[in-house]
Design goal:
- By secondary structure, the protein is an alpha/beta fold.
- It has two domains: 225 residues, 3-Layer(aba) Sandwich (Rossmann fold); 161 residues, Rossmann fold.
- The protein has 15 helices and 13 strands.
- Strand 11, helix 11 and strand 12 form a beta-alpha-beta unit.
- Helix 1 crosses helix 15.
- The chain is globular and about 60 Å long.
- This is Glycosyltransferase, MGT family.
- InterPro entries: EryCIII-like_C, Glycosyltransferase_28, UDP_glucos_trans, UDPGT_MGT-like.
């Protein structure tokens, strides 16, 4: 029986991209998908076969100041998050006012979806692009555990955010306090876009959680890129879409690998211009953004911020990682990469030490045990059911014919 699914996600690549394979499979089976997200992601949503529903959400920004996650530095981020949620909920209600929706598939970090499902009185299927949370393991608890000792959990900024989140739900006529809006797990069915082998406390997750492995979908087939040379190892450098304004780091990469036997594809984002880097060596290709899956098909090492989407795509293609995490979630991913011997991690001083940076990359590239572990993880990932298993779980949960 054809059903109508409303997807809701913040417009962040690491949150939207993994969900698009589910969209493609749902559409392939004859279901209808409407996808509410920010305007930047509309082309990708449309390419996957969904009906875009543009809402006033924007890509999350980095903390203010030096990047430290203090309540004061987080305040602008939280204010923007509240503003986006406040403006998005009426847009969702307006767009779907005359539509029948069978279920909401909401990104686990986008509470507007959870509130909207509650308002409609339909199931909320949680889409989890990072480590899942349950009664034993919580990403929020991990953040607080890893925060600096002087991090004040009762800071007025945090209390104000909590209270205003609760008020948003009340304004929508929904009985959801702030704890419920951000609780883990988010739904009776939680689709997790990582392999169980990468999950912290994996044995504690029950049948409410379907671990699907990384979902690349048709995007991996559509993205195209070729290295300039096939006779040199390829280093891919990318710090993601949030923490990418590090001019000194990019200059260090150039110093480390200029005129070497390596070829380097370096993504610098939109906060640094290529002209600021000085002369670009012949063995470098520098862009604001690369088609990541296409580059990873050819890469030998990925120097990454360790965002989950990047980490999963790298492992899917059997590419060892050298990580440079910039926030708690990325630090956790980097920790898991080390524990499973899937790569190495740079310490802060190595980001601007050209000789040490090159040495660390070459160590990872030459480590046979890392190569073996990454190959085994890629094989494990290939055995997961992916989008088909995810839609099977959705249809079984909803009792689809």
């Amino acid at each position: 029986m054809r059903k109508h699914f409303a997807f809701v996600s913040m417009p962040a690549y690491g949150h939207v991209n993994p969900s698009l394979a589910l969209v493609e499979e749902l559409v392939r089976r004859g279901h209808r998908v409407s996808y509410a997200t920010g305007s930047d992601m509309v082309p990708a949503v449309r390419a996957a076969g969904a009906e875009p529903v543009p809402v006033p959400m924007e890509q999350p920004s980095a903390p203010a100041g030096d990047g430290a996650l203090t309540p004061e530095a987080m305040a602008p981020m939280m204010e923007k998050f509240l503003e986006d949620t406040r403006e998005t909920l009426p847009k969702l209600a307006e767009h779907f006012a005359d539509e029948h929706v069978d279920a909401v598939c909401a990104d686990s970090a986008t509470p507007a979806g959870r509130v909207f499902a509650k308002k409609l009185g339909v199931p909320n299927i949680s889409l989890v692009p990072t480590h899942a949370g349950n009664e034993e393991f919580s990403m929020r608890a991990e953040f607080l555990k890893r925060a600096p000792e002087d991090f004040d959990q009762n800071h007025p900024v945090l209390r104000d955010f909590t209270e205003r989140m609760s008020e948003l739900a009340v304004q929508q006529g929904v009985e959801l306090d702030s704890e419920s809006m951000m609780a883990e797990p988010a739904g009776a069915l939680n689709l997790v876009f990582i392999p169980r082998e990468f999950q912290f406390h994996a044995d504690s997750f029950d049948e409410r959680f379907a671990f699907l492995g990384p979902l690349l979908g048709g995007r991996a087939e559509r993205e195209q890129w070729q290295p300039r040379r096939s006779d040199r190892p390829l280093l891919f450098v990318s710090l993601g879409t949030i923490f990418h304004g590090h001019l000194e780091f990019y200059r260090t990469c150039i110093e480390a690998f200029a005129d070497t036997g390596w070829q380097v594809a370096m993504s610098i984002g939109n906060r640094v211009g290529p002209e600021e880097l000085g002369e670009i060596p012949e063995n470098f290709e520098v862009r604001a953004r690369f088609p990541q899956t296409a580059v990873l098909r050819h890469a030998d090492v990925f120097l990454s911020h360790a965002g989950m989407n990047s980490t999963m795509e790298s492992l899917s293609y059997g590419v060892p990682l050298i990580t440079a995490p910039r926030m708690v979630e990325q630090e956790m991913n980097a920790e898991r990469v080390r524990e499973l011997n899937l790569g190495g991690q740079l310490v802060e001083g190595e980001l601007t030490d050209a000789a040490r940076l090159r040495e660390r990359i070459e160590e990872v590239a030459a480590d046979g045990e890392i190569t073996k572990a990454v190959g085994e993880m890629a094989e494990t990932i290939s055995g997961y059911g992916g989008a088909r298993a995810g839609v099977d779980a959705i249809e079984a949960y909803l009792g689809a014919d």
